[in-house]
Amino acid sequence: MIPRFLFAFAAPGALALALCLPAAAEAQGRGAASARPPAAAVPATQRAVSFVAEAPAAGGVLVLPLSAEGELAGRAASLSEADRGAVGRALTSSKFSYEGGKTLMLRGVGAWDAILVVGLGETPGPKAWQSAGAVAGRALRDEAGGLTVLAGGLPAEAAAELAIGLGLGEYRSDFHQAKARERTPTGPVIVVTGQVPAAEFLFRPRGEALVTAMAWARDVSNEPANKLYPETFVERARAALAGVPGVTIEVLDVPAMERLGMGAILGVGQGSARPPRMLILRYRGAGAPAAPVVLVGKGITFDTGGISIKPSANMGNMKMDMSGAASVTGALMALAKSGAPVNVVAVAALAENMPDGRSIRPADVLTAMNGKTIEIVSTDAEGRLVLADALSWVDANLQPAAVVDVATLTGAVRGALGDEYAGLFSRHDVLADQLAAAGEAVGEPLWRLPLHPSYGVDISSTIADLKNGGGEGAGAGTGAHFIGEFISRDTPWAHLDIAGVAYGAATDTGPAGSAGYSVRLLERFVRDVQP
Ligand code: BES
Ligand code: MN
Ligand code: ZN
Predict the structure, then answer these.
(1) Could you list the active site residues?
(2) Which domain holds residue 189?
(3) Model pTM?
(4) For 204-244, how does the pLDDT look when each residue is reduced to its tens digit (9 = 90+)?
(5) Ligand 1 closest atom vs CA 410
(6) Domain with 349 in it: what CATH number?
(7) Which ligand approaches the C-alpha of residue 479 most closely?
(8) How much distance in Å is there from the Cα of 342 to the middle of ligand 1?
(9) Residue 255: is it exposed, middle or buried by C-beta count within 10 angstroms (0-12/13-18/19+)?
(10) What is the CATH number of the domain that holds 204?
(11) Domain boundary among 192, 212, 232
(12) What ligand is nearest to the CA atom of residue 355?
């Protein structure tokens, strides 16, 4: 406790200095870094959402969620008997299964442009409602008109989750195409429910903020690295959080990180024309004494591997190697924009990993902010390096209730868990259980993997305090163990390795690219956590 107490006094001065420095003072002598594109290329196209008690007159697309044939009469009571009969016959003759996410699109029934039946499955709940909404949102993303969702007879939570799902499902990643620039805003979503005030209360502001934050996180993840690099990540975070009550933003630039001795993140960034940044976002929504939950994200805006260069096949996916940073920023954004009564800090460790005459080399030794020396085995194990300094900073400056870091850290976790689960590592069972429960609740599941003491041996070095790679063993585990060396053992800490789940091919609920994985999980965890 004593060293931390001392650091608490030392740090604010250093931060204030960092903030006072003009942008020019950090120039690394490379002109390209100064050209800055606008913060957002395309205006958001989120549909406006309202909840009403009576179904409006036909127009646009009708969304009809059903878990069984028998629900049709009640749910679609606002349709004429003839239209309802036509829907019923279509369901029967297509042998519609009512499974979660199954759809049947009907055109030419009544005065609607289309009627989209969406299966809810046999045991509907928040996850099923949200994912049914997302399937509908995705299927209807090109419908210019409004959407009317019939949620009568369902709980208020279903109405709210269907609306959240619609917002998530309509997300698009084609923002650099001409058609995106010409796109006109789509019509509103009208959710018909017998529970108008309750649904409204559940959706606004929380659900709405979540949809906005998810889109933000996916946008910055999907953005290519010529447009999204440490400085522009910071600009986009600033733009999205401007004026949000309770939020303060601090940025450590290169000189500030040099003064703090952050040799690890500086080492990773030194081969790039884009200088690294440490972005520290604070949201204070609870009373002053409440210790914050601290979220730390790996923010490699592009990972070539550096001198230990990656093969060229699929290297482009490494534009999304900042997904952890995007997720922790998105989670804070969702909490802050909805005025959640919590204290949370998000730290984004931002750098680009490039091969260059100035790059770090294998066998180099770097010194992290906490004084530990690191032998570089592979310059491609860079995520743990930027996190080492981020966690050292957290350890020295904050007294967290819990620390969770999120990173696209290892290919090994994909080998272990595929794209079904993110890897969860923690020495604190209570924290691990709370995170796993949050992931389960929102449909972003985690699978806990061990932190065996032998991983410490795997990453021991003969010339430095530790090394950044561990040979042929448990790659995800040694990466996790390494990160854990930079936060006090007394602080409840967990590491999420999202390398297998952060992005993927197009699905029924979203386009190819970033999944925004862990924004919803972290938002839920921070709200519900009992430290
Ligand atoms: N960003 C990668 C991990 C990754 C791989 C993310 C595939 C998403 C998909 C990370 O920086 C990396 O290169 N890790 C190395 C670590 C190794 C050198 C110890 C890996 O997994 O091979
Ligand atoms: Mn790498
Ligand atoms: Zn990486």
Answers:
(1) 310, 384
(2) 49-212
(3) 0.92
(4) 999 999 999 999 999 999 999 999 999 999 999 999 999 99
(5) 21
(6) 3.40.630.10
(7) 1
(8) 33
(9) middle
(10) 3.40.220.10
(11) 212
(12) 2
